[in-house]
Amino acid sequence: MEAVPRMPMIWLDLKEAGEFAFNAAVKKSAVSVPRDFEGCSTLRKYLGQLHFLQSRIPMGHGQDAAVPVTWTEIFSGKAVTHEDIKYEQACVLYNLGALHSMLGAMDKRVSEECAAGAFTYLRDHFPHSYSVDMSHQILSLNINLMLGQAQECLLEKSMLDNRKSFLVARISAQVVDYYKEACRALENSETASLLGKIQKDWKKLVQMKIYYFAAVAHLHMGKQAEEQQKFGERVIYFQSALDKLNEAIKLAKGQPDTVQEALRFTMDVIGGKYNSAKKDNDFIYHEAVPALDTLQSVKGAPLVKALPVNPTDPAVTGPDIFAKLVPMAAHEASSLYSEEKAKLLRDVMAKIEAKNEVLDQFMDSMQLDPETVDNLDMYNHIPPVLMEKCAALSVRPDTVRNLVQSMQVLSGVFTDVEASLTEIRDLLEEDEAQERKLQELLGRVPPAPGSPPGLAEVSKECSKYVELHEKASFTNTELHRAMNLHLGNLRLLGGPLEQVRAALPTPTLSEDDKQVLQNLKRILAKVQEMRDQRMSLEQQLREMIQKDDITTSLVTTDRSEMKKLFEEQLKKYDQLKVYLEQNLAAQENVLKALTDANVKYAAVRKALAEVEHKWNTTVQTLVASYEAYEDLMKKSQEGKDFYTDLEGKVAKLLERARAACQASEAQRQQLLER
């Protein structure tokens, strides 16, 4: 695009601190940080020192030196207290991520990857039971939002730098992927209940962005097709971009003016591209326009990542103020055990992510959405955009009659002008014929006693009016054609709603078709069940690892027995690993069943797609007819004004023509008498 419109970004509030028996000056500086990068630096230093303290003093949950730690939970505003120093660390880490998200949403548009890194470390290294705003679901949502917004910033820069169209399309497609993940989390009933009323606002913005950046991706795929001179592909990509942008506009209702301006700007760009491409292809290139699903899908290019957090990095934390405390051998051994747990988690996650990638790619290739796989409910209702037009016409019952009357008046004036011009031409032709007869009779052209005044001027002026009339006649014909095109639709929109609903196409499915649909939806539900179970088992494994603290056992275990103790302790994860393996192994059979069901669904899908296309086309045509009404009335009035003026001029010219022809006839009579 010639410029890069910006969409607003989501940022998170900081948690408020309460009681914690720590040095008051240190505590105040750590929780009342400025909203800038200096504040981020302060939070990192405080986090590191808390980690150094926790590794030496037993201040964890249930330990001897534990003290109450209080912070306010973001969504409810309630104070939440835990006797655990790790809770203080977790809340500081959350605020680090929230502050980075706040800075990232500002005009400079940086820091989103840092926010994602902070929330990722919090999700993977701390218990999720401290408070609602630090649950696994909420943190995963935050991570995907931050990564999506970081990728969105990269997309802006790529467009400003005029990077290659295909790269920009892939970057934009990845923005869509991140926001889809965020949207899945927002649509989860448990997440929605945790977020409260803010869930609806976030979901509306994210859903709108999904369609908007999908439109941007297809716009640049269309530009790449243009560069490759694939003019048919160019049309379908621009058409798809336009369709997706229209969906974004529908979802943007209630969004701020900046969003509306960005959408209008993008509509100008994409609409212009589509109209130009379609016109060029229709009149110049004549390339076949392929179906969108026959073209290769745009695979996202993830070029951002959650920046890792190292709470003990001396470059960030500064010197360890607890360095002189005697180190504890048990904590060293505990760190080794933590690494064994981390290795176990990495191995399991590698298998899960590999299967998830296959599953995601498979589902993307299928393009099956369980919520809209049959889309039958939409045919039971008149769409809101059409209801709005019907309601508008219901309070203007004379719409069609006014339009018809206006066009009838225009036709009458047009006919009068046509008749007058015809009479003038007939008079001139008759005069010319009489002149030729006279010359033939006399055999020569005698000296004329004087030409009739104005006859040449009448002829010249008549030619000018005929030319004006012929040009206007084409416009008048087009206006009548447009009126006839829209008149029936306007009558339909102004009539009973039952007739409008009857005019919209609806699918007709046989019992076999319905059975195919039910089977497909059942298997899609199985896929979702498999996903949910996999996420639940992963969550259980993470929570189990987080709670697994064997420091007490390590204190009484000889160093030579550590390896054996680790092996014994790690066996507690075997059952969960078995369940996960079973879940992962079931994927192949589930996807095979889905493939078979999808093959049977192909014919039904095609039929439903065709009906949906006809339904959308009908709706668009009816809406276009409504929107054309004011333009038709305006042009009709302009036509009446034009022809009324022309009628007056032609009437005067007709009088002059009659007088001039009478004078010419009198002159000929004089010549004959001589």
TrEMBL record:
Positions in coiled-coil regions: 520-547
Subcellular location: Cytoplasm; Endosome
InterPro entries the UniProt entry points to: ALIX_V_dom, BRO1_dom, BRO1_sf
Entries under Gene3D superfamilies matching the protein: alix/aip1 in complex with the ypdl late domain, alix/aip1 like domains
Protein keywords: Coiled coil, Cytoplasm, Endosome
Domain BRO1: 27-359
Keyword Coiled coil on entry: yes
Listed GO biological process terms: early endosome to late endosome transport; endocytic recycling; protein transport to vacuole involved in ubiquitin-dependent protein catabolic process via the multivesicular body sorting pathway
GO cellular component: endosome
UniProt key word ATP-binding: no
SMART domains: BRO1 (SM01041)
PROSITE patterns noted in UniProt: BRO1
Cited CDD domains: V_HD-PTP_like
Protein name, UniProt field: PTN23 phosphatase
